[in-house]
Amino acid sequence: MKVLVVGSGGREHALCRTFKQSEKITKIFCADGNAGIARVAERVNIKPGEIGALARFAVENRIDLTFVGGETALALGIVDEFERRGLKIVGASKQSARLEASKSFAKDFMRRHNIPTAGYEIAESPREAVEILRSGRFGIEGAPVVVKADGLAAGKGVVVAANRLEAERAINELENTVGKEAVERIVLEECLFGKEVSLLLFADGEHFALMPPVRDHKRIYENDAGANTGGMGTIADPSLLSKDETAKIIGEIVEPTMRGCREEGFPFRGILFLGLMMTPDGARVIEYNARFGDPETQVILVKLKTDLVEICEAILNQTLDETAVEWETGSSACVVLAARGYPQKAQTGDVIYGLDKEFTDVNIFHAGTAQDERGNYITNGGRVLGVTASAENLSEAIKRAYRAVGEISWNGMQYRRDIGK
Ligand code: AMP
Ligand code: GLY
Question: What backbone torsions phi and psi does residue 316 show, to the nearest 5 degrees?
Fold first, then answer.
């Protein structure tokens, strides 16, 4: 079987590696990949947003299965385009991807289906958002407010403002950081407090299979200080959610979401990602993503025992209920190594040292990497590597990851020393 993975980050490197382990796979292509992916897959020079070109590539190269990593291609309708041409593809349809691509759509969807989430109001322009805040009809005077751009914003569209004045400032600045289109609507949200957990699931429209719960570390600096990033590290650990919490989340969130998508005519097929806040009143949905997370995927896939191809086939055939999706016991941790200047402007082109060493139960997934003419691996993006370790327990997984991190270096490398703490 020939598989095509769409994307170029650490998530896609982890996907390619996992496909490589399947006996059913004879060849992996990745559009457009990175220097680490090039070791397991043939790189294809097409960007994820070029969905017509990707579909033509899949037809011409008789690709048996395509797997989409990120949100850009999903929101553009890559799945609909491939299916129209009779090509097999795993990912959310354009309609399903609105759960991620439009925060106002997701909030109204949750309201329609009684899915627990933060209270909110939708403004049709930045000016209306400010008016709503000033009217006093939203939120409590002096309390924090969360300001969210409606559209896709690569993690930069959310500001947790300490008070109304800060929220107004955030509204006025949002257009500059995320662009006009993403702020055609703005969501104002009540600020929730608690621990954040992400729960991802494979979904076939009708049935689902949960993945192990994970936690992301979004801020650039230790102790959750500084700017939000795409994610500086993750852990997968069974203790992040108790059995009771998981059962409640299934009943109050997962099942109503799956049912709601069916009722509204877009059965959810692909990967559904629930960003949750565990409040004293129970789990609340902070956001939906219609895809695997990066770097959530890295810690999840190193624990997957079942052949990923089998799971993909079950998603396509709507037989996930008949497929046992199995996971290794224990925990895993991923420490992201980022370039100097990330998340603002990352410095690229620095030679990476220490990649020749091998460590037991450690995978070094490449994100922003390239090779120079001498064959050295060099930095080529903000997040450069995701050092991912698994072990029987979390503290050992973290120790293993940092031991490997200690061997890697480049000019300006930055990372958090508190992943999983
Ligand atoms: P999102 O892109 O919607 O996941 O938001 C990015 C981050 O902002 C989340 O991971 C949370 O840390 C924070 N956040 C978003 N919405 C809320 C909320 N209603 N209350 C508190 N924090 C939030
Ligand atoms: N790590 C967060 C995301 O992929 O959305």
Answer: -70, -35
Q: Give the angle 93-6-383 at the CA atoms, nearest 5°.
A: 115
CB 69 within 8 A of CB 42: no
Q: With a 6 A CB cut-off, is 122 part of the ligand 1 pocket?
A: no
Are 269 and 92 in contact, with CB atoms under 8 Å apart?
Answer: yes
Query: Distance between CA 25 and CA 64 in Å, rounded?
Result: 10
Q: What is the pLDDT of residue 193?
A: 95
Nearest residue by C-alpha to atom 6 in ligand 1: 158
> What does the alpha-carbon distance between residue 168 and residue 157 come to, in Å, rounded to a whole number?
14
CA distances from 73 to 70, 92, 151, 366 (A): 7, 10, 14, 21
Ligand 1, atom nearest to 286 Cα: 16
Could you tell which of 289, 301, 365 is best to mutate to test the pocket of ligand 2, judged by most ligand atoms within 8 Å of the CB?
Answer: 289
Give the whole-angstrom CA distance, residue 372 versus residue 381. Answer: 14
For ligand 1, whether the C-beta of 219 sits within 6 Å is no
50 CA to centre of ligand 1 in angstroms: 30
From CA 240, how far away is CA 388, in angstroms rounded?
Answer: 18
* Angle, helix 164-178 to helix 126-135, in steps of 10 degrees: 170
107, 287, 291: which to mutate for ligand 1, most atoms within 8 A of CB? 287
Q: Is 196 in the pocket of ligand 1 (CB under 6 A)?
A: yes
Q: Ligand 2 centroid vs 200 CA: distance in angstroms? A: 11
Quote the distance between the C-alpha of residue 399 and its chain's center.
Answer: 24
What are the backbone dihedrals phi and psi of residue 310, each rounded to the nearest 5 degrees, phi first? -60, -40
- Could you give the domains of the chain? 2-93 (3.40.50.20), 125-184 (3.30.1490), 195-322 (3.30.470.20), 331-405 (3.90.600.10)
Give the closest ligand to the alpha carbon of residue 271: 2
Q: How far is CA 91 from the centre of its chain?
A: 13
The alpha carbon of residue 236 and the mean position of all alpha carbons in its chain are separated, in whole angstroms, by 14
In short, whether 216's Cβ falls inside 6 Å of ligand 2 is yes
Q: What is the pLDDT of residue 177?
A: 84
pLDDT in tens, 252-271: 999 999 999 999 999 999 99
**pLDDT tens sequence across 150-165:** 998 877 789 999 999 9
189 ligand 2 Cβ < 6 A: no
Q: Rounded to the nearest whole angstrom, what is the distance from the C-alpha of residue 227 to the centroid of ligand 1? A: 13
